[in-house]
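Materials and Methods. Structural model of Polyhydroxyalkanoate depolymerase. The 441-residue sequence of Polyhydroxyalkanoate depolymerase from Methylobacterium durans was retrieved and submitted for structure prediction as follows.
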Amino acid sequence: MLYLMRDACDLMLTPARMAAGVARTACQNPFSPLAYTPSSRAVAASCELFERGTRSYAKPTFDLPASEHVVWERPFCRVIAFGAPSAKPKMLIVAPMSGHYATLLRGTVAAFLDTHQVFITDWADAKQVPLSAGRFDLDDYIDYCIAMFEALGPDLHVMAVCQPSVPVLAAIARMEAEDHPLVPQSAVLIGGPIDTRHSPTAVNRLPQERSIDWFRQHCIHAVPWPHAGYGRNVYPGFLQLAGFISMNLNRHQSAHWDMFNHLVQGDGDSAAKHREFYDEYLAVMDLTAEFYLQTIETVFIEHAMARGVMRHRNEPVDLGAIRRCALMAIEGEKDDITGIGQTRAALDLAENLPAAKKAYHLQIGAGHYGIFNGSRFRAEIAPKIAAFMQQNAALLPAELPPGLADVTTSGSDAVAEPSPPAALFADRALSQGSASAELRL
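The predicted structure was written out as tokens:
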């Protein structure tokens, strides 16, 4: 009912948005006398903010200086390749399935276009996937990861950003346990909630305070007609967006007030930056109910992976089986989503992986977003990732640009020393069809 009410409200506001657009045009068009009144800019700014604050945002585009083509596809995900096939090292970026689209990692992709053949997971909006495509849960997510690794291998390097760190690590552990020949050569886990008992954040504490029934009752809704996924139970993107905004409500209010002032003052550049950010931030997608609830229960409440009791298709997920795939953990000093120590726990749990194949980097001054995007990521983190992947390539690729420092340095960048396995694990909650994968390289 909540989903239906939301869609109905969106439709009812359509005439008001159209009227606001007309008024804005009248106050900005140089041929309109209203454009020369003292309050014209304020009225135009108010109309734009109203329109932007009440509409739904479409899925953004990557808009990068490289061609895009789909090389693998199933109902709930497709893999996009950037540029033509080349001899560069292959890097698969596993984007979060956490409400936002993969385009949130536009800057992450851009940082590696010159040095790697980059692929990224483009997860589907659950409300656009028909019920006939079947269900999608955490086990299916792990199946997808294994299938993608097989399709893109050999000599594949993987980067998991935030939420997918757990299923990516589980997929690698299952492949290692079966001595799979196409296990990735390295995996970089960025801000992944591997063990949320370390430095727990507000995001980690909520599942501990609520039962799984509370999440089922308050977070799950059926997709209404006329969406393609009509009848599918989902965790709506607009609910998750509300949670994101509530965590930093004052910051968002200040940003929109600044936007209003920029428009009134005629500061078009600052207004354009605001539009660019919020066009991405406010574009959200739904997650299947089964994926969301299984992730909450398995990762956040039960800490199954950390306790060594996680299973995939009734088979144990044992991180101790990881012996070949090198692991790098990256964390941010000011991350308020995934606290310090949560991602590094993966290095402790992979107790049989040689120390030379482990690396850790703590980015000083960076928050959650800053460890996979922005100036610090481009200048400090991306070079370390590229160097780590090069060091752990079975067949060394063509020379990378100079300046890629060796990750096995001292301090926060040190290779992790062997230590007793951490006791527990966890994650942050954030949805397969049966169609076969198709590789189109």
